[in-house]
Write a structure and sequence with these properties.
This protein folds into two domains: 60 residues, lambda repressor-like DNA-binding domains (434 Repressor (Amino-terminal Domain), Orthogonal Bundle), CATH 1.10.260.40; 157 residues, Lipocalin (Beta Barrel). The protein has six helices and ten strands. The longest helix has 15 residues. The chain has an eight-stranded antiparallel β-barrel with strand order 1-2-3-4-5-6-8-9. By secondary structure, the protein is of the alpha+beta class.
Length: 250
């Protein structure tokens, strides 16, 4: 790895975007000293370099040989390259609050992949839920992942052919206590008989897991569930951090 070349490109990109080292560190979820080391031509972990590249929206490593075809998302998806986002691929447990039952949580399976035909990240959200009356049902959402350059967030967007929208915005996934996680909010529609559709929102927590560990872990979570207290507290913390002054509670 040519760290001197990477430092030159990083410093040029910071100047071009009029971005401070502190602002970049905050977007990337790393310490300011890490950015300073990289700017001085000192090496960092590959994972850390990827986080910084994602926060900048550009690759700092030399481009692949011209003979290799570029794999680039369209600009309206963020214009990102496959190499820049491949660390995001995989399976996640995705936690949110129930829209129908106070105190209930829902754990879903979110799978992120690169669509070779459409040349951008896509996702599938598999959910098992239970209605207030006890009836169980399963459903799935499939959509696109937008990664706006230099912003440090992901948008998971589902668009219906009749104008409806389901959107989840999260931070870029980061490693915390050995778990690769992202935090954010979901905005969607819920439906009640005799009332119709209405907008709802909830904090969300994504944790990357092995695909072979998901079975049996998705569905509703009541207060006696082994992970309930941990996840409920995490959702409250997300709500307080991203919406100061709000009253949180699961």
């Amino acid at each position: 790895m040519d760290w001197s070349r990477i430092a030159t490109k990083l410093n040029a990109e910071l100047a071009r975007q009029r971005l401070s080292a502190q602002a970049l560190a905050r977007r990337a979820g790393v310490d300011r000293k890490t950015v300073d080391r990289l700017r001085a031509g000192q090496g960092v972990r590959q994972t850390t370099l990827t986080w910084i590249e994602q926060a900048l929206g550009v690759s700092l490593v030399a481009a692949p040989p011209a003979a290799e075809p570029a794999r680039l998302a369209a600009l309206d998806y963020g214009g990102y390259s496959y190499e820049l986002v491949r660390s995001l691929l995989g399976d996640y447990l995705y936690y949110r609050r129930s829209f129908d039952v106070v105190g209930r949580l829902v754990a879903s399976h979110l799978e992120v992949h690169w669509d070779e035909q459409r040349d951008h990240l896509c996702f599938v959200d598999y959910q098992h839920n239970r209605a207030r009356g006890g009836a169980r049902y399963e459903y799935r959402f499939a959509g696109d992942v937008l990664v706006p350059a230099g912003v440090g967030v992901l948008h998971f967007v589902v668009r219906s052919n009749d104008g409806r929208l389901r959107a989840m915005t999260t931070t870029l996934p980061r490693e915390r206590n050995g778990v690769f996680e992202a935090k954010g909010f979901l905005l969607t529609l819920n439906e009640i008989a005799d009332i119709g559709f209405y907008p709802v929102t909830t904090p969300v927590l994504l944790e990357r897991v092995g695909a072979d560990t998901i079975a049996g872990r998705i569905g509703v979570m009541e207060s006696g569930h082994a992970d309930y207290a941990r996840v409920a507290a995490a959702l409250v913390a997300i709500e307080h951090k991203f919406t100061p002054g709000s009253v949180g509670g699961a």
